[in-house]
Give the backbone structure.
Amino acid sequence: MGHPISPSVYLQNNPMLSELNSNGSTEAYDALSKRILTENQQDAFFICDLSEVKSLFQEWRATLPTVWPYYAVKCNPDLRVVSALAKCGAGFDCATLSEMKLVLGLGVAPSRIIFANPCKMESHLLFAKRNHIRRMTVDSVEEVEKVHSIYPTAELVVRIATDDGGSNFKLSKKFGACPARVPKILESCRHKGLSVVGVSFHVGSGCGDLMAYKKAIHDADKAFTMARKLGYKPTLLDIGGGFNGRNSESKASLETFAAIIHESLEECFSKYEDLQVISEPGRYFVSSGFTLAAQIYSKRRASESWEMMYYLNEGIYGCLNGTLYGEEPPKFQLFRKAGAKLCPIPLENTLLSYVWGPTLDGLDLVYDKIHLPELHNGDWFVFPNMGAYCIPLCTSFNGYPGSKVYYINE
């Protein structure tokens, strides 16, 4: 049977469990409780605190005042999030026709958009041309030729490869020109009479290497020098994304990276006049603004053992999809309705447990062999920091819809 265990030991043995009530009585948790208790919520759902998104924009401006943020729409294309950031004055990193259309539909000027996809579909390139989105990335001679044939008045930003070995999601194998290729790309642009306005890089999503930005900024300086030797006068440096969410425990904070970035920019780019530096943060702006709640709707014992099986109304084919892409299973909190209150579940009498998602696929396993107190149908798992990539990567496999989002502090 299960055995008593102290909260401190329980948390040590279950690193995926968050400290219960560690966030205090936040507005997001108040809204979550109200929805469960007074509106009889049954389906999994998100609470999005838009004040958190706006606060993070102000925090960015205070911490990195010389780097203007261009939100990476792919991270979470939620209309109200994008609208909030647009009102704050953010620019936008768009990779597709639909992302450009979304941002333009909010009245954002084309000059506040960078078409940051080094490999563009022709129809998307034509859309950018018709809507006067001029700045875009290239990383090959072939892409230069495509842009020249469709949008010869575009303003090109040459994307260079970086060392992204310290990031959760690596991009430089797929995108970015190695140093030996940069001169050929620039020469092709010059030969075709195309405008080159800058250089970009991306150190990978979820960066954990403090030196990645430093090395990439030094490499970008070399690319600037190559461009100037060919008669170009680049004025834009795009340092990409990779910044972690506010509550990231295993990765460096924005403040930590800001010190390295400021130092590197001063070393390499103080010599350039009229330089504009932008970045493409995604998860930094949205991770902590979203809290996901999912309910246990079924349970059973595993065979004749004391191991427990629990079934959630969210899973890895839905918004708990991070493990499919190499992320650690998300941390959570456990709550149970007790009369008119939503209470933390006591950390005692734990059993070896399995937590499954709702689909009929045997791979839909959210937590494998985790020690939990005995839970019951109607209990809630609450997942903080779920705003990055969860929603756009959600599927409707088996007919399960994505979790609905409810907003506070608009």
